[in-house]
Design brief:
The protein is of the alpha/beta class. It has one domain: Rossmann fold.
Length: about 250
């Protein structure tokens, strides 16, 4: 039988778990980008069930960008990664407070519906077998899933146009896939989940935030765009929440 085109384990989270990747978020622009991401994830989580004691799995979360904020909210946090190296940063920052599961990101050693909430940021747009990742997130989530992805909008064309600039600034930035909202919704629907909320993050491309890192002008513009509703319409990337349709 011929091998599946996705038969080899994908390991994009090794890069996002590295110190080099973390260094991209060490300055003012990076701190700002992470603060918006944190605000978005927590706002999507806090609109129904209490967070204290909630079992949360961060798939591809070796970057440790969300483990700390989730722990502060009282969640019981675990991280899943494709390689043992993906645990290093989490262990360095949080010790044994965060459990770690190693395995194929599309076939994790985790029981069905083992976690109330499953989160996966900075991952799906770097997966060739992204439908397999969606299927696995749906299998292990009992109630709720939150992912992020770049979506096709008019301003996304500006992000694509500024990608060479982003690459020059960050040096180690990676290519990524953008999605239509409908294709993401359809993929989750096939596994019994529906989109229930979203949080769009930025109106301006991240490359511009990094280029003007020491200026508050763009951040002030982002605040204004969110207040008047522009970000909710065209912001990118989008954090999206999905909930199981039938208990």
């Amino acid at each position: 039988m011929p091998a599946s085109p996705h038969s080899e384990r994908e390991t994009p989270d090794i890069e996002t778990s590295s110190d080099g990747y973390a260094s991209r978020f060490s300055g003012p622009a990076g701190h700002y980008l992470l603060s918006v991401q944190e605000q978005g994830v927590l706002s999507l989580l806090q609109n129904d069930r209490p967070l204290t004691g909630r079992l949360v799995l961060d798939v591809g979360g070796g970057h440790a960008q969300l483990a700390g904020p989730l722990l502060k909210q009282g969640c019981k946090v675990s991280v899943a990664g494709s390689d043992a190296r993906c645990a290093l940063r989490v262990r360095q920052l949080h010790g044994e407070a965060v459990a770690f599961y190693e395995g194929d990101l599309t076939d994790l050693p985790i029981a069905d519906r083992a976690f109330d909430t499953v989160i996966s940021v900075r991952l799906i747009s770097h997966m060739d077998n992204w439908p397999g990742l969606v299927a696995e997130l749906c299998r292990i989530a009992d109630k709720t899933i939150i992912i992020d992805y770049p979506t096709y909008t008019s301003l996304n064309l500006l992000s694509l146009a500024t990608f060479p600039l982003k690459k020059r600034i960050e040096k180690n930035t990676r290519t990524y896939r953008s999605f239509w909202d409908g294709e993401i919704e359809a993929s989750f629907a096939r596994h019994g989940f529906k989109a229930t909320a979203d949080y769009r993050q930025f109106t301006m491309p991240m490359a511009l935030h990094r280029l003007f890192a020491n200026s508050g002008g763009l951040r002030n513009l982002e605040t204004l765009m969110r207040k008047i509703g522009v970000t909710a319409l065209i912001g990118n990337p989008v954090l999206r929440r999905f909930d199981r349709m039938n208990g």
